[in-house]
């Protein structure tokens, strides 16, 4: 019962995010933005939908139960959700499930984007592993972690290339990389 309620709530969250993404896409396109990587997007959607189908199937068919570590995994899940919301709020109308590029814009450098380049992808990767582990769905956890890694190995280079070509991404990235590290002579 807990599993069904949990999965329904996560799926509803994803549906709300798709609605937000559609709204943001329309707003960005009206400002002159364009989509990059449209050819891989249906595969990404299929992967995420298949994730839930396989998760549900594995838990039901193999009679998987709640993990003995469920409480700790659930607390971690809640922390990850807070980080997910932080990413969405930090990007504002730039956040999307698609790669939408607004030429001439400045990359977002606030929230978790101050600390890493792709925090939202990291969060999704953690969720794809964490959610199945909460219900001992090890086949789903392993399989979709690999599939997500393959998807991101296509998606991230496309996104970075587009950002470098159309925004100040290269300048900001170089600035971050060229920041001098403290001189530490105590090896």
UniProtKB/TrEMBL annotation:
UniProt entry tagged with the keyword Transport: no
Domain of life: Bacteria
Compartment(s): Membrane
Record-annotated membrane-spanning stretches: 45-62, 69-95, 121-154
GO annotation terms (biological process): methylation
Keywords: Membrane, Methyltransferase, Transferase, Transmembrane, Transmembrane helix
GO cellular component, one term: membrane
UniProt GO molecular function: protein C-terminal S-isoprenylcysteine carboxyl O-methyltransferase activity
InterPro entries recorded: ICMT_MeTrfase, Metal_cation-efflux_comp
Predominant location: membrane
Membrane topology: Multi-pass membrane protein
Name the record gives this protein: Isoprenylcysteine carboxyl methyltransferase
Protein's organism: Lysinibacillus telephonicus
């Amino acid at each position: 019962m807990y599993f069904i309620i949990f999965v329904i709530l996560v799926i509803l969250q994803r549906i709300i995010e798709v609605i937000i993404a559609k709204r943001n896409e329309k707003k960005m396109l009206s400002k002159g933005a364009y989509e990059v990587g449209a050819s891989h997007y249906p595969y990404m959607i299929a992967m995420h939908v298949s994730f839930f189908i396989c998760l549900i199937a594995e838990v039901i068919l193999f009679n998987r139960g709640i993990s003995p570590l469920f409480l700790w995994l659930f607390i971690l899940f809640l922390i990850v959700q807070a980080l997910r919301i932080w990413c969405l709020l930090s990007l504002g109308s730039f956040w999307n499930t698609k790669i939408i590029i607004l030429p001439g814009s400045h990359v977002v450098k606030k929230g978790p984007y101050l600390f890493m380049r792709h925090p939202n992808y990291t969060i999704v990767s953690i969720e794809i592993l964490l959610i199945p582990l909460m219900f001992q769905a090890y086949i789903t956890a392993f399989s979709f972690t690999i599939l997500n890694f393959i998807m991101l190995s296509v998606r991230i280079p496309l996104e970075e290339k587009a950002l470098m070509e159309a925004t100040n991404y290269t300048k900001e990235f170089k600035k971050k990389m060229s920041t001098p590290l403290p001189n530490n002579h105590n090896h």
